[in-house]
Specification:
This protein is of the alpha/beta class and about 250 residues long. The chain contains eight helices and seven strands. The longest helix has 29 residues.
């Protein structure tokens, strides 16, 4: 039985850990060839090695044109096409007063969470259009839908991702390119301590109490949603900001 992404080639950024790793591994399990892109060379290599021959590792700074160009070129040179782009790389400041976020942190947040989507879009849209279509998935956040104090500038960057997704979806629809966003609630990733300010059992319990289904998200939760949106089963779905949040945004 063939996988749901058989014959597809996917680039997943920030795929060296967390949600990106989960997505890359699920895509490969469903038949896709995967470019595991990450700023951390060792992490990207580990994930690609664990996936096997269906994956290659690429060290890429997605905030720089040269990094994005190299990442996309590697995908097409090695696998011959590019069907799915997952803009998953993300960055956040620590949970704090909005006046206490440094300009350097603000710039990095906007570069990774916003500019990277722009740069990757410039590279992949011409390729997808020539192939007759494709899928772009942007990892946004519940923070872009239901912002709360303490993460204001991060929240704003995820609001950008959601609005960009919807506008891209309309503009790229005639090219048969679907664009959707994932909106996870906080999960078991390296950024969790930054989201909460401090990762303690008490803070985790308090945060879980705000999620009706009573737990944090997992990479598997996000990967399942990303698989559906990338598959042909979602061929009529575009411009959606899908909440994967256990009811948090209700």
């Amino acid at each position: 039985m063939s996988g749901r992404l058989e014959g597809k080639v996917a680039v997943v950024t920030g795929a060296g850990s967390g949600f990106g790793e989960g997505i890359a591994k699920r895509y490969a399990a469903e038949g896709a060839k995967v470019v595991v892109a990450d700023l951390n060379e060792g992490s990207a290599a580990r994930v690609a090695r664990e996936i096997g021959s269906a994956a290659i590792a690429v060290t890429a700074d997605v905030t720089k044109t040269a990094g994005v160009t190299a990442m996309v070129t590697d995908a097409t040179d090695v696998f011959g096409r590019l069907d799915i782009l997952v803009n998953n790389a993300g960055y956040t400041h620590r949970n704090c007063d909005l006046l206490d976020v440094s300009e350097d942190d603000f710039n990095k947040i906007m570069a990774v969470n916003a500019k990277a989507i722009y740069l990757a879009t410039l590279q992949v849209v011409p390729i997808m259009e020539k192939q007759g279509g494709g899928v772009i998935i942007n990892t946004a956040s519940t923070a872009g839908l239901r912002p709360r104090p303490g993460l204001t500038w991060y929240n704003a960057s995820k609001g950008f991702a959601i609005t960009a997704t919807k506008s891209m979806a309309v503009e790229l629809a005639p090219k048969k390119i679907r664009v959707n966003a994932l909106c996870p609630v906080a999960g078991e990733t390296a950024m969790l301590d930054r989201f909460m300010g401090e990762d303690t059992p008490e803070r985790r319990a308090a945060f879980k109490a705000t999620i009706p289904l009573g737990r944090l998200s997992t990479p598997e939760d996000i990967a399942n949603a990303a698989l559906y949106l990338a598959s042909d089963e979602a061929e009529f779905i575009t411009g959606v900001a899908l909440e994967i949040d256990g009811g948090r945004c209700i």
